[in-house]
Amino acid sequence: MSKALFAGLVAAGAAVAGRYAVQAWKRIQSLPARPRIPRHMAGGFEPEMTREEAFQILGLRKGASLDNIRSAHRRLMLLNHPDSGGSTVIASKVNEAKDLLLGKRPTRTKL
Question: Does the global pTM surpass 0.70?
Fold first, then answer.
């Protein structure tokens, strides 16, 4: 009799666990899909920065206003400034992109 009782308890436990597994699977399926991460530029930087590349670096669309360019530059520099632990390469590319889009003569430094 104890074997039959044990088998019954195991079957009941498996049924309860299966029920919770099905409920969890349904909850997972009802979650919104993860947002797709856009693909970045294939390859590296061009030897001479283009306007398209400058807009991509600043995260702006073509034809952005001067105020949008300045605010995007400021936001990125606050996040990536070398004095705050950011990368000098990224900071120089952000500065170069801003200079190009604002019509200033970019200052190229060898990295």
Answer: no
